Amino acid sequence: MVAAKFFDEITEQSRMKAKIVEYYFDAWANIIVGTQKARTNMTQRIGYFDLFAGPGRYGDGTVSTPIKVLQKAVSNSEIAKRLVTVFNDNNQDSTKNLLTEINQIVGIKELKHKPEVWSNDIDDEFVQEFSKIKLIPALAFIDPWGYKGLSNGLLQAFVKDWGCDCIFFFNYGRINAGINNDMVRGHMNALFGEHVVDDLRGKFVGMESDARESLVIETLARTLIENSSAEYVLPFCFKNSTGVRTSHHIVFVSKNFKGYEVMKEIMAKASHDLSTGVGSFQFSPAANRQTTLLFELNKTLEELKPQLLIDFRGQTLAMANIYKAHCVGTPFIKANYKKVLRELEDVGKVKVTGRKSKQGFADHLLVEFPN
User: Fold this and answer.
1) Relative to the CA of 157, which of 61, 212, 318, 355 has its CA 20 to 30 Å away?
2) Structural domain range at position 347
3) What total of structural domains would you count in the chain?
């Protein structure tokens, strides 16, 4: 009943979440399709899996993520002829409504592969089946109401193969409460691991709420990287309507730096605060600046300058290599590095060689850092 009421009316947070998924799907699909066209010996299909899809439309008439993704797909002929989609929801009323909405999409018959709509429970059997399958390049969106069905094994199953990325909903409030609740201990163990949950319980004693949130999210990120083939985990925080408390996060998981780079750009632009030139990686309807603790995502460009001078002391590297080596776990995107390096050059803190252009700080330019 609670999950069904979620679709009564779209919130600002849900609207932004849908935009992030939609924008990433579009960018990801075009990157994969470009690779497939260049390599004809590989599969010419791509996939999109939504495991908690809902009815396809909110009560106020706003279409939800499944419809947005399909609308994006039918507008691109290269994606339309490759895309395989699976939409699942264990509520049969929701799947019935979703199928109706899908069939009403203008141009839906342009898709070579007809969308599949399932009504399965996301349980251990489901995870085991997908763990055995070698997936085509696919984006998985896992958006449960709470935490039932969300497990480390499920996330691993959907990022294990080439070209596979995952975006999932992380209900911090409910999971924070669940870690100390023996009634849902099994769900917490499935997500973090039994020993990790025990460790979190011990550390929670006397810990303030913001530090506790940071610990939970960083533990989640570390667990995903340690227990799967994923190398990159990027969270985005949503505040409640007053901007005071965290409502939830969406978390992006990938093995590929390019995917991480693209999603980071999208999340940075979706941030409610860009006043410093650096995304806050959180969205608050109240636009009340809060500190995002994970991976020190509250750093400014002024802090980046001395850090680069320290981290690359005595080295000479191309701008692109500096960016790639340094950006993971920071809030900074490529444009931030170009701006800072240009400013460091202007004041004589670094030496830059290579053909320059008024268009910007090119990727190939060599930057020499002093000892």
Assistant:
1) 212
2) 301-368
3) 2
Q: Are 141 and 49 in contact (CB under 8 A)?
A: yes
Reduce the DSSP state of residue 225 to 3 states and report it.
helix
Rounded to an integer, what distance in angstroms lies between the CA atom of residue 107 and that of residue 30?
19
The span from the CA of 133 to the CA of 157, in Å, is 9
CATH of the domain at 364: 1.10.10
d(CA 223, CA 59): 37
pLDDT in tens, 3-44: 444 455 678 888 999 999 999 999 999 999 999 999 989 999
Name the residue type at position 214: S
206 shares its domain with 275: yes
Q: Do 347 and 242 share a structural domain? A: no
DSSP 8-state code for residue 109? G
Beta-strand pair 165-170/246-254 = antiparallel
Q: Name residue 361's amino acid.
A: F
Q: pLDDT tens digit string along 195-238?
A: 999 999 999 999 998 889 889 999 999 999 998 888 999 999 99
- Amino acid in the structure at residue 113: H
Q: What is the pLDDT of residue 296?
A: 52
**What are the backbone angles phi and psi of residue 246, rounded to the nearest 5°?**
-75, 130
- Look at strands 165-170 and 138-142 and give their pairing: parallel
- DSSP-based helix, strand, coil % in the chain, nearest 5: 45, 15, 35
**Residues 159, 263: one domain?**
yes
DSSP at 350? S
Residue 8, classified by CB atoms within 10 Å of its CB into exposed (0-12), middle (13-18) or buried (19+), is exposed
Tell me what pLDDT residue 34 has. 96
